[in-house]
Design goal:
Elements: H1 3-17, H2 35-41, H3 47-55, H4 60-63, E1 69-74, H5 91-105, E2 108-113, H6 119-129, E3 135-138, H7 145-156, E4 161-163, H8 164-184, E5 192-196, H9 200-211, E6 216-221, E7 224-225, H10 249-253, E8 258-261, H11 270-274, E9 281-284, H12 294-300, E10 305-308, H13 323-332, H14 340-354, H15 360-365, H16 387-410
Parallel strand pairs: 1-2, 1-3, 3-4, 5-6, 5-8, 8-9, 9-10
Antiparallel strand pairs: 6-7
Helix pairs in contact: 5-13, 6-7, 8-9, 8-14, 13-16, 14-16
Length: 412
């Protein structure tokens, strides 16, 4: 370990340890400094909202923090790039997620790390505590269990359930890709897209792109192209098997317009970038080290547009651009779920915001003189103060439209 690495490690540990351990605390939103206030906060005054909620459960949104409270829940099986470190070791990450919810969308969070003996026991735990919350954010849960967990919770609960590693990633990738294709003079419905990595993020993004109009998507994993007739294809990927003669990454990359990497460091050889179609788009999103470094990719293609998952390169694909604002919009709409339409609305709102003039506060936050829509700026910066206005409102409107349509259909 270098001196610089040691220094950063110590700063990170000190940040979490001082002045008091952890990154979260609970503060009262009501005064409780007098006997009269105490009697309102607790007995006997607290009995009145209890009676109201018992009479009409919807009033919980009026008299408690349910409508602004999200559970960030994990089993610790897929934590960042660290793998299955277990529930307790995952707690700093879940606390960090809570900080982002509060900082960017003023949403309160309880982080909940569950040590369950089985996947079904995990699901039952979440179902049993769900009445406390206005929404559930599933985090750092390994595939394939994450698919089953989310599906069952969505089926059994009437509040938004959102697995950020799948859908938050998908929304931000789709937003960035819409703008990248615009800059490169291409259309989503006509481009050839290749994914390297067919896990939770890859499959969710491929499905969202299909819903938005993409027609030519090929997924590649460690064993090769996921194609029709692929041996031992799991039911989870059945709808994404491609009609193609390609069997290797090299086959798939020939004349590809778009590469989306959600796999591992250094997994994309520069030689394959050379074989892509004119004006290609490369999203190398493995963290902390991408499938190919921008310098390597641009050395072989000067017509390239590129994004990564890192903040030290242009065009960072960052989930923080999505999940706080998507939940803000869902909570404000009292959405019963996070629908595909709400995700598409979030992606379009992000894409549109990147095309707007950048405010001075953003330039100052990133120590920049100028920033404008183009090859090095296809997606907003996380500290853009307009994200809540653009993304949350788009999500809220999408949910309200769906709820209105459902009401009209059912007549209720």
């Amino acid at each position: 370990m270098t001196e610089e690495q040691f220094s950063y490690k110590q700063r990170a540990l000190d940040y979490h340890a001082y002045p008091k351990p952890g990154k979260l605390s609970v503060e009262s939103s009501k005064p409780c400094a007098t006997g009269a206030e105490l009697s309102l906060a607790y007995t006997p005054g607290v009995a009145e909202p209890v009676r109201e909620i018992h009479r009409d459960p919807e009033t919980a949104y009026r008299y408690t923090n349910k409508g602004n409270l999200v559970a960030v829940i994990t089993d610790g099986t897929a934590v960042l790039g660290l793998g299955n470190v277990g529930p307790l070791a995952s707690k700093p990450v879940m606390e960090g997620k809570a900080v982002l919810f509060k900082r960017f969308a003023d949403i309160d969070v309880f982080d909940i790390e569950v040590d369950a003996p089985s996947v079904d026991a995990f699901i039952e735990t979440v179902v049993n505590i769900a009445p406390t919350f206005g929404g559930i954010n599933l985090e750092d849960i390994a595939a394939p269990h994450c698919f089953y967990i989310e599906r069952e919770l969505r089926r059994r609960l009437s509040i938004p359930v959102f697995h950020d590693d799948q859908h938050g990633t998908a929304v931000v990738i789709c937003a960035g890709l819409l703008n990248a294709l615009e800059i490169q003079g291409k259309q989503l419905s006509l481009v050839k897209i290749v994914f390297l990595g067919a896990g939770a993020a890859g499959m969710a993004t491929a499905r969202l792109l299909k819903a938005m109009g993409a027609t030519d998507i090929t997924l590649v994993n460690k064993t090769g192209v996921l194609h029709k007739g692929y041996a031992n294809a799991s039911p989870e990927v059945e709808d994404l098997l491609a009609e193609t003669e390609a069997r290797t990454l090299a086959d798939a990359m020939h004349d590809a317009d778009v590469f989306i990497g959600v796999s591992a460091a250094n997994a994309l050889p520069a030689e394959l970038v050379k074989t892509m179609a004119p004006r290609p788009v490369v999203f190398a999103l493995a963290n902390p080290d991408p499938e190919i470094l921008p310098s390597q990719a641009m050395a072989v293609r000067d017509d390239l547009l590129m994004a990564t998952g890192r903040s030290d390169f242009p065009n960072q694909v960052n989930n923080a651009l999505c999940f706080p604002y998507l939940f803000r919009g869902a909570l404000d709409a009292k959405a019963p779920q996070v629908s595909q339409n709400m995700q598409i609305a979030a992606a379009h709102a992000l894409a549109q915001l990147a095309r707007k003039p950048v405010p001075e506060s953003v330039l100052k936050a990133y120590d920049l003189d100028r920033l404008e829509f183009g090859k090095d700026y296809i997606i907003p910066k996380p500290f853009d103060p307009r994200l809540k206005e653009f993304v949350s409102e788009a999500v809220r409107q999408a949910s309200l439209a769906e709820q209105t349509e459902l009401t009209q259909k059912t007549g209720s």
